[in-house]
Amino acid sequence: MRIISVESISEAVKTRRKQLGLTQSETAAMCNVGPRFFSELENGKETLQMNKVFHCLEMLGINLYAVNREDDTGENK
Residue 62 burial by CB count (10 A; 0-12/13-18/19+): exposed, middle or buried? Predict the structure, then answer.
C-alpha cells in the first residue's frame, strides 16, 4: 500500500487490526497506548504524536519505508 496521507496510515492500521482479529481496545493495550489514542489513529487524526504512531505500527507488524520517487519501482501501489 502506498502511504500518501494520514488516512492511508489509518487505513493500514485498521486493516491490520482486523486481520489480527483484535478490537480497538485490545490493540491499544497491546501497543501500550490509550483506547482514545488508538481510535484517533484509526480515524486519521493529523496531530498524533509520531513516536506513538510508529510504536503502534511496529507492534502491529507494519513497516513504513521512505523511497525517493525516482527510485520507486511502482510495486505495492
Answer: middle
What is the spatial distance between Cα 52 and Cα 5, in angstroms, rounded to a whole number?
17
Burial of 28 (0-12, 13-18, 19+ CB in 10 A): buried
Q: Which three-class secondary structure string do you get for the chain? A: CCCCCHHHHHHHHHHHHHHCCCCHHHHHHHHCCCHHHHHHHHCCCCCCCHHHHHHHHHHHCCCCCCCCHHHCCCCCC
Whether the per-residue pLDDT at 76 is higher than 70: the answer is no
Query: d(Cα 44, Cα 58) in Å, to the nearest integer?
Result: 18
CA dihedral 70, 65, 42, 36 (to 10 degrees): -140
Please give the average per-residue pLDDT across 22-26, as a whole number.
98
